[in-house]
Q: What sequence folds into this?
């Protein structure tokens, strides 16, 4: 901003991801955008509907100019929503926007039904409770198995990291072992309303057993030998 403020017209950012923003950070971003007359757009595609019925910016007290949502708003049905302040949204009137799906009604119907149920069932509270249940389960399971891990992320979007030089291979082995037990799992866990206590208990039991196998394999140096395929790619490294 200090170097290119006069050239910046739009700032696009997630309001929150793995860690809560530092006190005053978002307010400062908002103030800077106001000062240089830049449009502040928040990406709610991942975090929207996980902390509340709506966007995380509402929880954080941030007033963006535009907020963008995707299929979480419609429980997975193809749908997106771009909402914003009237003066900014009216800018679209000076452009040409076309879509073959303007008359498609499944997405909007699914979104309305999802929002109503989201409010009625207090889904965010459930997501937070299940997320904390998973995090506590990981911690206990790792301690019992003797597997060093760290846990991070927001409660509904938690993840663990194995603390070892062969962590990526070990994480790949975790997915392999969990698949053998009937769970499609990675080191990340995004909670849903469909996740109920019994399923989580079964998942954590499988995770504890897998942690035990991984801990022994790391100690013996046999993780690579146990893999039935290549080590999983790390993030988007293969694209960079």
A:
């Amino acid at each position: 901003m200090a170097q290119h403020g006069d050239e910046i017209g739009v700032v696009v950012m997630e309001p929150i991801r793995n860690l809560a923003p530092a006190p005053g950070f978002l307010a400062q971003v908002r103030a800077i955008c106001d000062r240089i007359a830049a449009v502040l757009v928040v990406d709610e595609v991942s975090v929207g509907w996980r902390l509340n019925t709506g966007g995380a910016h509402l929880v954080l007290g941030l007033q963006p100019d535009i907020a963008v949502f995707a299929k979480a708003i419609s429980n997975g049905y193809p749908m997106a929503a771009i909402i914003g302040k009237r003066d900014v949204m009216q800018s679209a009137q000076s452009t040409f926007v076309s879509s073959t799906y303007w008359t498609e009604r499944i997405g909007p119907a699914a979104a309305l039904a999802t929002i109503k149920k989201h409010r009625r069932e207090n889904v965010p509270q459930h997501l937070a409770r299940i997320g904390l249940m998973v995090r506590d389960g990981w911690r206990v399971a790792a301690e019992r198995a003797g597997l060093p891990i760290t846990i991070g992320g927001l409660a509904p979007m938690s993840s663990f990291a194995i603390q070892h030089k062969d962590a990526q291979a070990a994480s790949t082995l975790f997915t392999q072992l969990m698949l053998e037990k009937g769970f499609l799992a990675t080191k990340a866990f995004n909670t849903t309303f469909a996740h109920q206590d019994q399923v989580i208990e079964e998942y954590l039991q499988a995770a504890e057993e897998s942690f035990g196998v991984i801990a022994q394999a790391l100690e013996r140096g046999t993780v690579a030998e146990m893999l039935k395929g290549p080590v999983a790619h790390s993030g988007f490294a293969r694209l960079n």
Observations:
- The chain is about 40% helix and 15% strand.
- Residues 5-120 form a domain with the Aspartate Aminotransferase; domain 2 fold (CATH 3.40.640.10).
